[in-house]
Amino acid sequence: MNIVVLRETAGGEARVALMPESVKKLVNLKAAVKIESDAGLLAARTDEDYSQSGAEITTDRKDLLASADILVTVNRPSADVFSQLKSRAVVLGFLRPLDEPDALEPALTAGLTTFAMELVPRITRAQSMDALSSMATVAGYKAVLVAASSIPRMFPLLMTAAGTVPPARVLVLGAGVAGLQAIATARRLGGVVEAYDVRAAAGEQVRSLGATFLDVDLGGLKTEDAGGYAVELSEEALKRGRDLIAEHAKTADVVITTAQVPGRRAPQLVTEEAVNGMRRGAIIIDLAGATGGNCALSKADQTIERNGVVIMAPTNLPATVPVHASQLYSRNVTAFLSLLIKDGELNIDMNDDVVGPSCVTHAGQVVNQRVAASLGAAVELGTPAA
Ligand code: NAD
Question: What CA–CA distance (Å, rounded) separates 182 from 291?
């Protein structure tokens, strides 16, 4: 059984789906691993590193795809790549099934079995496969470093002979995985941090990191679903949050926004008015740029300036930390792959409580109900046997 990794081709992408340490694990599971030449180079791993771990290296992309039983990727492959795989081949990666379901039609047509890392359920058993958390961790960390190196001031409180330098004031919106990592990183640099989230449970985690939690009275409104994710709020509830944020943004040097609602447009939390109220030299790093942004003025992957306030919305910060982002991702996908491989052969158990829910298409059908609904009536619903 062949597991194949291609060199990622998306602009700015530097991650690789499998690192050599994971290749070793997969070879131990009796799988053959084939890597496209230079696939790991930007993540500081050479073809030689992969060979030494037991992988076969090749430059022949066409042959790689034709021989793949499992294609492991970081980003969703192109329609052309899907069409070159054999029917029933497995594709595993960040496939954006809820944001861009249409782009998976070619995989459906080609009869591929696709698993989206975004759909891996966040249950205890699947914690080692939680690639969203891995990438959010990297993004939250890097966002603070980008902010720290962009603002015209320092982060820590310094008492010098020339007088006192006050610490940077940081406001973090959304205290999930990325937000908490941003808080921890900003605190390590010596910043004074405030954070806001609609989930009350986030308050304790924020405080345990030495930051102040901004409480908004939402009148006992339900703010999270059974899975612990935030739900879409009413306009009135959103407004209360926005008003509080605008007030606190006035004194912030750095605003890092990470608020997301799975499968929906990101909530708009920083209004144009709030930006106008911020002081010159401040920066907003909007980590929700890929789903519309948390700031009204954000433009994905662009840097905007408004009255001396800089607004950035980088959509792929993990790619700017390719070694550790690849290492974590590679471990996540390898843990998932170990559920699909038995005695060196592909063995897909759709009844498994991690495998089944992570599947998007299988045997010519869309098996994920939310994706099927987005794709419309043209797609047959069903849960075929493996
Ligand atoms: P996410 O990326 O979907 O959202 C980021 C944060 O934005 C969340 O904390 C959310 O509450 C917040 N948010 C959404 N709408 C908002 C609004 N209008 N105003 C302010 N904040 C808003 O979330 P995530 O980081 O992937 O994780 C969310 C939850 O899942 C957390 O409780 C986290 O601890 C939990 N989680 C559990 C596991 C596990 O059990 N294996 C793994 C990872 C995360």
Answer: 19
Q: List, run by run, the mean pLDDT of 10-residue segments along the chain (386 residues).
A: 97 97 97 98 98 98 97 98 96 94 94 97 96 98 98 98 98 98 98 95 96 86 78 85 96 97 90 98 97 97 98 98 98 98 94 97 91 64 38
CA of 225 to the centre of ligand 1 (A): 11
* Protein residue closest via CA to atom 32 of ligand 1: 228
Distance, in Å, from the CA atom of 267 to the CA atom of 288, rounded to the nearest integer, reads 9
For residue 180, the ligand 1 atom closest to its alpha carbon is 25
Do residues 254 and 285 make contact, with C-beta atoms less than 8 angstroms apart?
yes
User: Could you tell me the distance, in angstroms and rounded to a whole number, from the CA of residue 133 to the centre of ligand 1?
Assistant: 10
Residues 357-385 as b or e (16 or more Cβ within 10 Å = b): bbbbbbbbbbbbeebbebbeeebeeeeee
- For ligand 1, whether the C-beta of 91 sits within 6 Å is no
**Nearest to 74, CA basis, from 132, 28, 26:** 132
Name the token pair of 173. 């919106």
pTM: 0.94
CA of 221 to the centre of ligand 1 (A): 17
Closest C-alpha among 165, 161, 170 to residue 153 = 165
